[in-house]
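User: Quick sanity check before I run a bigger batch. Here is a single chain. Can you write out its predicted 3D structure?
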Amino acid sequence: MSDHATSLLKLAVVGHTNTGKTSLLRTLTRNPGFGVVADEPGTTRHVEGARLMVQGEPTLALYDTPGLEDGMGLRDYLEQLPRPASGRLDGPGRITRFLDTPEARGRYEQEARVLAKLLDCDAALYVIDARDPVLGKHRDELALLADCGRPILPVLNFVNSDNRRTPEWRAALARLGLHALVEFDTVAPALDGEQQLYARLGMLLDQDRHAALERLVHDLDTQRKERRRAALRAVSELLIDAAALKVTCEGTEEAAQAAVQALQTRVRQREQACVTALLSLYNFRASDYAANELPLTGNRWGMDLFNPQALRDMGIQLGKGAAAGAMAGAAVDVMTGGLSLGAGTLAGAAAGGLWQGGERWGKRILSRLRGWQAISVGDDVLRLLAVRQCLLADALERRGHAARAPVKLDAATGADSLRRGPLPSPLRDARGQPHWSACGDDYQPGAGRERAIALLAQALLEERDAAKHRVSAEREAERR
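Assistant: Done. Predicted structure follows.
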């Protein structure tokens, strides 16, 4: 047997039917496709497994087991078995004897699979639906599992639900001598939920196994920080591309309309690429994001960047250009003798926010749109891009891979500084560097663009951490 095999820590994920065992495995392995999750009981019928690696070495094996359905009946059956001639058996001996009986391959086949796997493992995670009442069947299940002679860590699932019974479960488990437990909501786990689970499990194991879990916890923390940095870099690349983008056109109504549509299309598609990258980074699928919030859904636009209502929904106050957009369009009709930027309003207020520097664009209108014009994305739209994608990154970081409802952004959260105040300096710098935009026709990547992306990503990270500390301080103040 290899050193890797002997050092591998094996955990059986056990519990009553339909408590979220497979959901826990999905979240711990970051694999939304692991097993089958459904509301019907008894979905998992066979033992399935997965391994977690640390620096290429398998460190933890997790096994999803069938649900225990008749613990009470099995306990009664074990009591009826005649004692062996050698005398009284201990717990593991009783379970081993049961596994050799015909009932282990018949009426209690499902329970037998669970107990056999636990005997082969170092410990068990006993998953509890915290919304369920404490019943006698749970005590019977825990008694059977305890007979296997392995450490058991109860995991309270769905603890974020309004109808949770967490205090009842804590009291019941304490009466059974299970004082070490962990709360872990598989749909929306805490950011350090995995670390808490493994740290608590380590308390039940010997020093060698505890050291393996410490390595795993450190690796998970490193991965989480790397994902966060990668996510904020992806958002920063999007923002630099949008801020630097310029579309030029002749000073005619038809050319201006075509340029506006081209700019909108490029920015929308660029945001969609960012969404796809974030979903992939956190190992989620397109279906995990609500379709009406996707920048692009098939051939129709969803929560459109250039819609003033989208700005308001994200708590962004419309700037001077966006607020006056409709009036500017109407004024152009009069001032230019019918030559307007889009049939009088050019998409209303959203159009007014398209041109960066409303005063400069106004002067061009007054000059009857002579010569070539440069159109760029307004500050309000940049703010919407920043807020929306940062909220998405935060939501994905907090989302369990067992979640089934699509992500919906909470506009009431996030960094207020992205909604108001001056734009970060890297974005202001990008305004004068159209060759920085990967969406543009003259894209020329270089050190300047990379430096701007890095500075912006760091600023977003600092703002995110500051916002998190503010929320923690507010919650602490409320508890006091």
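The domain at 3-205 is CATH 3.40.50.300 (Rossmann fold).

User: Great, the batch can go ahead then.
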